[in-house]
Specification:
Layout (H helix, E strand, L loop, with lengths): L9 E3 L7 E3 L13 H5 L16 H23 L20 H17 L3 H18 L7 H20 L20 H22 L8 H10 L15 H4 L3 H10 L3 H7 L1 H7 L1
Antiparallel strand pairs: 1-2
Helix pairs in contact: 2-3, 2-4, 3-4, 3-5, 4-5, 4-6, 5-10
Length: about 280
């Protein structure tokens, strides 16, 4: 997991930030492909045309890259609770998370990378793992609505699209689904469990404290990571609705919409429980 990938991944950003990659066969979308409407829904980047070859060097490099990114996120979260320097190899260079916005920034990069892979057998388990990290870490920080709901909209887009086998916004078929590939019952059950847990956690967290201020630092982050952040995160979203006196109504609407498209795709059985 710590070895250098055998394929050419151009990693950007610091090691503590999770980074991103630009690889010829797994391109990031051009700025012109992102419309104002898709920014409003935290658009996902365009996936590659064909899934990564199973067992091939590109798949191996992808797995190593994402595994390292997830490990870095878990280390930074653990470091949040450690005041003393760790003696673990390399851990003395890890800075603990100070806000959920920082968690979201690292996880969002990985979500984009996983989506761009265009490989359902990798997208489903990795997106589940990343979504679970967000749900698990969310209660450990003050409510951070802008980051939280943007990431949940992006994950909702991803899961609902995977369940349908096509992008729910554009209607385009997803790579890997052209041969009748669909999600297994086990995968659907795992998504259902995640959705139900997340909806409960979001309600408890968002109504349990004062919202953290995000607007200024979010704009700075967008400038630092334009290659990924500005192409699919909706960083131009107005955060003032969460800071004004009347934010409660908007907040409740966002809470009610958590994974709403995924719920629809999963069917009425989860809708009755989660809605």
């Amino acid at each position: 997991m710590t070895s250098t990938p055998s394929v050419e991944f151009g990693v950007t950003g610091s090691s503590s930030g999770g980074g991103g990659f630009i690889e010829p066969s797994i391109p990031s979308p051009p700025p012109s492909s992102i419309t104002s409407a898709s920014l409003a829904t935290a658009a996902l980047p365009r996936p590659r045309e064909h899934p990564l070859k199973s067992g091939g060097p590109k798949e191996t490099g992808f797995i190593q890259y994402v595994d390292r990114g997830i490990l870095q996120v878990t280390r930074r979260y653990a470091k949040k609770y450690s005041n003393a320097s760790s003696t673990e190899s390399g851990d003395d260079e890890v800075r603990g998370y100070e806000s959920f916005k920082e968690v979201g920034k690292d996880v969002e990069r990985l979500i984009d990378v996983v989506w761009v892979s265009g490989t359902p057998s990798l997208q489903i388990p990795y997106l589940l793992s990343l979504a679970l990290l967000l749900t698990t870490y969310l209660p450990s920080f003050p409510p951070t609505p802008r980051t939280t709901f943007r990431l949940l909209r992006k994950l909702d887009h991803a899961f609902s699209s995977l369940l349908q086998g096509r992008d729910v916004d554009s209607g385009d078929s997803l790579p890997g689904f052209d041969r009748g590939r669909g999600l297994s019952t086990t995968e659907k059950v795992r998504i259902k469990s995640l959705v139900e847990r997340t909806r409960v956690v979001v309600v408890e967290t968002m109504r349990g404290g004062d919202a953290a201020e995000e607007a200024e630092s979010e704009d700075e982050d967008a400038d630092d990571d334009a290659s990924i952040e500005n192409e699919g995160t909706g960083d131009d979203e107005d955060d003032s609705v969460y800071q004004d006196e009347g934010y409660g109504t908007k907040w409740d609407m966002d809470i009610a919409r958590v994974y709403d498209r995924t719920v629809v795709e999963l069917g009425e059985s989860i809708g009755e429980k989660g809605g």
